Amino acid sequence: MLKIVLFAAIFAIAVQGYHPVEDLLEKTEHGGQIWAVIVAGSKSWYNYRHQSDVCHLYHLLTKKHGIPRQNVITLMYNDIAFNVENPRQGIIINALHGKDVYEGVMIDYMGRDVTPQNFLDILNGQRLRVGSGKTLKSGPKDTVFVNFVDHGGPGILGFPTDELHVADLTKTLENMYNEKRYKQMLWYVEACYSGSMFSKLSPDMNITAHTASNTDESSYACVKDEDLDVYLGDCWSLNWMNNTEQIFPNLEKETVEQQYEIVKKMTTESHASIYGDLTYIYSEPISTFLGHPGTGAEEEPVPERKIKYQSTATPDVMLEYLKDKREKATNSEEAERLDKEIKYHIQTEGKVQEILKQISRQVTGSWKMVAVFSKSPQSIEHPECNRDVLSTFFSQCYKMQTHPYITKYLYRLTNLCNMYSSDKIVYAVLENCSHN
Known about the structure:
Helix content: 25-40%
Strand order of the largest sheet: 2-1-3-7-8-11
Mean pLDDT: 90
Number of helices: 14
Oligomer: single chain
Radius of gyration: 22 Å
Low-confidence stretches: 1-27
Order of helices and strands: HHEHEHEEEEHEEEEHHEHEHHHHHH
Largest sheet: 6 strands, mixed
Number of strands: 12
Distance between the termini: 77 Å
Shape: globular
Strand content: 5-15%
């Protein structure tokens, strides 16, 4: 009878999400847990690589590194595995090994539930009434790892239909710190201009952020699959996961600083950067955030793969994809449709640059000043202005999700925030975009 009661109790605990073996693996050195929030912020077939990166990472964290599934929160639009353009239905492959990484991934939030607000609510530990409802339940003894992969711009990270602004992210991080929702937190962010999200991050909040690019450049897509007509991964993301797999299972022997320096050298297309706490977290082993492989049978480390890859700046991937499809078009109707779509985007890229010039001219009152603000990206000194101006531009003019190439020019707009009021810039955006 006692055995039956014990079995029933263990079963009830397991159903509620507690896994005794996994919970032993998740403990950090000082008794806390490891939590992870991983996000692929895009949708559409040509953005294949973002969901591939996240699926690959999910298996690294859970299957290989021993972080319990209930401690990993995954946001992914989930329109790739069964996309009509996918010849291998239900399969997503990663660039490092060509293995299927989709099977077994527990997606907590998908489709229209992948939003900036839901992401921030998860970080704040708020209960969500969509998706799985899973949220970050970390506390003052726990470490948190956040991985984000998508498009970005000056002070913004892209989501499928909206954007996350640096002003809102900073507020959330400050709230997490004040409420002691973590002991240490590590961010790995793959996006253009990703450094601009963390360049003002305080070194005293126990947060470190690795980014694929600095504050004023694109990140890059890598490993082109000619059969699928897509890139299978992002250069920096592939590099850090490649490095992690090489040293497996000895994750405790490489520090956060060491991985940063190794991956920085591996990434030649953009300038991998680091922000925030460069003292304490720097010296932590990566196992503190990426998990402990455990004491089971050790797997052989994955040999380093010398990837011969074609790389393309992220904002240019969509147009390249359309041109490749045009070359392979087998009927005149499809070719004509693609010709029109390509022509539209080429013309729109030029049009966006002209609109930004006109906005800058209206705000500054001088063509000479237009040249000054169009020269190069400036630091974001007024994040609220940055948010208000870009939100207006995206809602009234062009969206970065459907016109990703515009991210190359948005700094010409956000630079204005360093000298002029948001009201004046927003008014100019409305004036010029209303005639678009």
